[in-house]
Amino acid sequence: MKCLIVGLGVFGRNLALHLGQLGAEVVALDRREDNITAIKDEVAAAAVIDFTDTAPLTRFPVSELDAVIIAIGDDFEASMAFTMRARELGARRLVCRVLSPMHARLLRLLKVDRLVVPEEFAARGLAHSLLMRGAVEGIDLGSGHALIEAATPPALVGQTIAKQAALFRRHDVRLVTLKRPERPLFGGLLKVDPDAPAPVRTLGTIGLDEPFLTGDILVLFGPEKGLRDFLEAEPD
Q1: Where are the alpha helices (DSSP H) in 110-223?
Q2: Helix or strand or coil: residue 185?
Q3: Is 151 helix (H, G, I), strand (E, B) or coil?
Q4: Number of C-alpha atoms within 13 angstroms, CB side, residue 21?
């Protein structure tokens, strides 16, 4: 996958890094030298441009890229100008960060493929994690459903999906996977940085007889009420 990102604030920079880690070929553009310096070794190419001039876009094969992302977060006029220029150059898939309701309406008129409001997305996820006991992350999927990460309730430790199938069914909750802290090598004899976050391993597809362990993070999908009730319920 080849993509172009214009704007390297917190959202654009993290998007560029994650895309690069996933194997995408990323070209990143920003008006600030420090933003380019911070990311240039992590992407295929990075360059400083003037946001008052959209001409630099013509130097890239925009119509051949898999995606063009306008991630400018603090300049309405620049965001609109680069969005319009990318559309004129034949961008096949155009994604834009939304700055305001008016901006969103104008972007829809330009038939932008996807509108992104990072702050709203983060706020909705945080709301889910705050309202559900033990939840540490949450993604609102719409229509009253969510995907959350939650600490394993103490009463579930040592239990398995097979033993607690009725509990999952009763609340219409699905276990997507488990995230499990890595155990220290050699029984903890090797010194580790006590302030460093513990490494976590995603287990993938979970067998029905896999026991839940202390410290496991459950990745759960279901209706919001079902998820809340599940995390507060006593095992069967």
Answers
A1: 118-131, 165-170
A2: helix
A3: strand
A4: 7
Token digits for 66?
Answer: 């898999």
Residue with structure tokens 């996807």?
114
SS3 101: helix
How far apart CA 140 and CA 228 sit, in angstroms, is: 14
* Kind of pairing between the strands at 2-6 and 25-30: parallel
Q: Which amino acid is at 192?
A: V
2-116 has which fold?
A: Rossmann fold (3.40.50)
Nearest to 2 by CA among 85, 116, 93, 90: 93
**Gap between the Cα atoms of 128 and 181, Å rounded:** 23
**CATH code, 121-232:** 3.30.70.1450
The full set of domain ranges for the chain reads 2-116, 121-232
Q: Is the pTM of the predicted complex or chain greater than 0.70?
A: no
**Phi then psi dihedrals of residue 206, to 5 deg:** -100, 130
- CA dist., res. 61 & res. 66, Å (int): 10
Strands 217-223 and 200-202 come out as unpaired
Per residue in 132-190, pLDDT (tens digit) is: 778 888 887 878 888 889 999 888 999 998 999 999 999 999 999 999 988 665 555 55
What DSSP designation does 100 have? Answer: S
Helices (H), 22-164: 33-39, 76-88, 101-109, 118-131
Query: CB-hemisphere CA count at 13 Å for 83?
Result: 28
